[in-house]
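Closing statement on the zinc ion sub-project.
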Amino acid sequence: MGCSSVPKGSGISQSKGSVKNGELVNGRRFPYKGANYKYFSPLSFALFNRAWVHSKVLDISLEAYKKCEKTCPKRKFLLMECSEKNGGRPWPHRTHQNGTSIDFATPLLKNGKIYHFDHHYGIWHYAMKFDKNGKLASNKKVEIDFETMAKHILALEKAARKRGMYIKKVILKVNLKDEFFKTPSGKKVKAKGIYFVRSLPEIVDDVHDDHYHVDFAWL
Ligand SMILES: [Zn+2]
């Protein structure tokens, strides 16, 4: 795998088509890890080759993580699937096809303290289940840190706007949204008008608890 700490890829990135039917040209691959984040699965990174995005989306994400070093000290973030090197459909995702979609693991707390144990789950992270209050189904002491999640989203939006892009859509399990928007930073996300999908087919809704999906687009 060559646990590189620098991005891979060169040339002018192009996201063609849509997230549902598209391709990625001259993308960038995230470094496997940075100061306060890492990619969730060596298998997904090296074999499935799914840590690729448009160069601007890479820059946005890295700047947001940098910002979170200050706003969320001690928090380590987990980056999940992005796009494949040349885009196209990465089964079972329907989208993630042109280098503008990223899945971010929901940051967790245990007994109110930063909790990173989920960073060891690899691809099984996607199988984690949370109740409607954001508590882990198998251990209610573990819960989603909605405030940190909102700070991260605000940092992504800011970094995106600097580059002529914005967050077009966030997908989070619909019954978790009220918990998210209750937090101080969640209220700021709402005030900025960042769009969260309002209703989802059950099969899509069900999986967006351990992670939130973000689509970026050009202004
Ligand atoms: Zn996704």
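The chain is about 25% helix and 25% strand. With this model delivered, the sub-project is considered complete and its resources will be redirected to Aim 3.
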